[in-house]
UniProtKB/TrEMBL annotation:
This is Small ribosomal subunit biogenesis GTPase RsgA. The keyword Protease does not apply. The keyword rRNA-binding applies. Binds 1 zinc ion per subunit. Residues 115-261 form the EngC GTPase domain. Zn(2+) binds at residues 286, 291, 293, 299. Belongs to the TRAFAC class YlqF/YawG GTPase family. RsgA subfamily. The gene is rsgA. PANTHER family: SMALL RIBOSOMAL SUBUNIT BIOGENESIS GTPASE RSGA. The lineage of its organism: Bacteria, Bacillati, Actinomycetota, Actinomycetes, Mycobacteriales.
């Protein structure tokens, strides 16, 4: 069976795309069957664009497309590709660094935004007011996935206030996270940012934050369309409509994504604990282990708010995020329990039918 890369497609170094020894070991069985490794760069209906050692390949993806949004093929996946005149993806390798939010339809499913991510760049525009809650939510997704977050403050050339002051405020909000100020228009800060983006980087942020312009600056070529934000309210339109992966000039890859209107949380308790490490540390002094930091006696967190060591708005955001994440996780548990119950009932029906059949034969 011959290999069929796209016409005029250059070969790719899989290591530069994120391939490593662990993936090679996982791929051993597929390789013995004549399949080739492919990284998914874009997902369309029933088709995927991929990069392989032999070049870019557009392949049928129906075999790895499921109704469950948590397990269907997505940008960033590593897959086993069957080459030939009509290439097709036949299996997905186990994922790591999965960036996922609660499904926008409020079901118990998660929506996978990108797979096999090493770095999550939280993109916020200096030309609009910074929203701490949005930044904290994206940081929680990153930490929970095991990815390293970097906060990127864009549009420094048209900032509403002093960029250094805003960067300092954001740094205080996101303890231990690098904050980089850039301007895609002037090129300021782009080289510094590029050095902080190892492996696979995904850009996440709202429409109008400048993700597409930032992508073009990092790629060194205009690959993404850009739009101006609306002057009336400072909001942007969805310039990017697909999640798409691009190789970076110095190695590694970049995943650009459509703007996020909302960032729902689904079972990201570990990420929340990391983002709000200051509150978690204070909570160790609470009189009760299961303290909810509301009206319980001897609550160290409430004491910190009273004496000014902790901002009440930050505590409120923490409470909302914990409540939302736990609620989504509980719905997921109910869904899994429902599936198990349905399976148990099906087995019981089959056993009863078998006994009825045996009774008629006796």
């Amino acid at each position: 069976m011959s290999f069929s890369p796209s016409p005029n497609s250059a070969a790719y170094d899989l290591a530069a795309l994120g391939w490593d020894g662990t993936l090679a070991e996982l791929f051993t069985e597929y390789g013995s069957r004549g399949l080739i490794a492919a990284r998914v760069t874009r997902v369309d209906r029933g088709l995927c664009d991929t990069l392989t050692a032999g070049g870019a390949v557009r392949a049928d993806s129906t075999a790895v497309t499921t109704a469950d949004p948590e397990h269907t093929v997505c940008t960033g996946d590593w897959a086993a590709l069957e080459p030939g005149p009509q290439p097709r993806l036949v299996a997905l390798l186990p994922r790591r660094g999965v960036i996922a939010r609660a499904s926008v339809d409020r079901t118990s499913h998660r929506q996978i935004l990108a797979a096999n991510v090493d770095t999550l760049a939280v993109v916020a525009s200096l030309a609009a007011p910074i929203k701490p809650g949005r930044i904290e939510r994206l940081l929680a997704l990153a930490w929970n996935a095991g990815a390293t977050p970097v906060i990127v403050l864009t549009k420094a050339d048209v900032a509403e206030r002093d960029p250094a002051t805003t960067a300092a405020d954001v740094s205080a909000l996101a303890i231990g996270v690098d904050v980089v100020t850039v301007s895609a228009r002037t090129g300021a800060g782009i080289d510094d940012l590029a050095r902080r983006l190892p492996g696979t980087t995904v850009l996440l942020g709202p429409s109008g934050a400048g993700k597409s312009s930032l992508s073009n600056a990092l790629l060194g070529v205009d690959r993404m369309d850009t739009n101006d934000v609306r002057a009336v309210d400072g909001k942007g339109r969805h310039t990017t409509v697909h999640r798409e992966l691009f190789p970076l000039p110095g190695g590694g890859v970049l995943i650009d994504t459509p703007g996020l209107r909302g960032v729902g949380l689904h079972d990201v308790g570990d990420g929340i604990e990391h983002v709000f490490g200051d509150i978690e540390e204070i909570a160790h002094g609470c009189g009760f282990r299961d303290c909810r930091h509301r009206s319980e006696p001897r609550c160290a967190v409430q004491d910190a708010v009273t004496d000014g060591r902790l901002d009440l708005d930050r505590l409120d955001r923490y409470r909302r995020m914990v409540r939302e994440s736990e609620w989504a996780a509980s719905r997921g548990d109910v869904r899994q329990a429902s599936k198990r119950t349905a399976a148990d009932k099906a087995v019981t029906r089959d056993i009863k039918a078998l006994y009825r059949l045996r009774g008629r034969r006796d």
